[in-house]
Amino acid sequence: MDEYFDQTLNNYFDQAIQNRFDQAMNPLEPEKKKRVHIERKREEGHQRLWDDYFREDATYPPQIFRRRFRMNKPLFMRIVERLSTEVPYFEQRRNGHGRLGLSAIQKCTAAIRMMAYGSAADAFDEYLRLAESTAMLCLEKFVEGIVHLFGDEYLRRPTPEDLQRLLDIGEVRGFPGMIGSTLNDINILDRSPVFDDILQGVAPKVKYFVNGRQYRMAYYLTDGIYPKWATFVKSISMPQDPKASLFATYQEAVRKDVERAFGVLQARFAIVKNPALMLDKVKIGNIMRACIILHNMIVEDERDGYTQYDEATFAQVESNRTSEVDFTYSTDIPSNLRNMMGDTITIRNEVRDKKIHDRLQADLVEHIWEKFGTNQY
């Protein structure tokens, strides 16, 4: 009996070892998961969407449309029309059986809802009738189309006239030569497109006076984590006298305007503040650019209804203007590579000059005190 038991056990182990050897020598390919086909009845999804928002007697009124699409209906339809006629992906086609595919309105609605609410790709499957992978592709193609079709108009570089307007606004608020505030990640500062033109020597030059001293490089207001560069004006974290305290108050107040503007962008498109739906850097970049472009389009579309401020308030009379674009400065790129590299190094050193930073900040402290101090103390 013992011999029979030992023989049976040995045979079992021999077979087990043989099986493992065979698996190692002839690995089986993993079984491919079969894609489950779901008949989503996309035609019904399109008709429901059309009845709810786009027909003359739509279920939901215009104010509800704007809240859920983040824009007015005419602007949305303008975008849909451009995409459906100029981007092949949004053209509605028939398949081999003659059945129509998803409509451009369905695809664009899926993309804009994901951007507006920051939702998962399958969040609108039951309503819009499209799969998760299709929704992700709609978002990808939508932002690519927005950047391609509208980027040149709504995400262009500022013209000299735009730059002069920014200078005028900055001067009225007590900061001559200031053209904005920056929220760029400090870790990618050297690769920021904000400074590419400056370092290459092709950015428009400005000239302005602060406390009787002339400067020729525009600057941005920043917080304390940024380096002491000539193009940055930081606040004073621990002011020790009334002048420094007043400067810090005004600097932080003006800088917060950009933070509020970015907050508006986040409120309008939750995809900006939520965890990224995509891991590809290029796709994430396109999403961010598309959000900014759409924001600018919405602002233009609704500008006539804004009543919070009067642009004339920031208009500068030329005779009183101390900050202006220097149109006499040449922005031609040197043809000689050695000269070009030398100029780039010179400009880079000028941008990073701590002495200019400290002197400009000190002059602005005096300027703010002279301009506003009598009303505060």
From TrEMBL:
Protein name, as recorded: Uncharacterized protein LOC104704587
Gene name per UniProt: LOC104753822
Species of the source: Camelina sativa (False flax)
InterPro entries: Harbinger_derived_prot
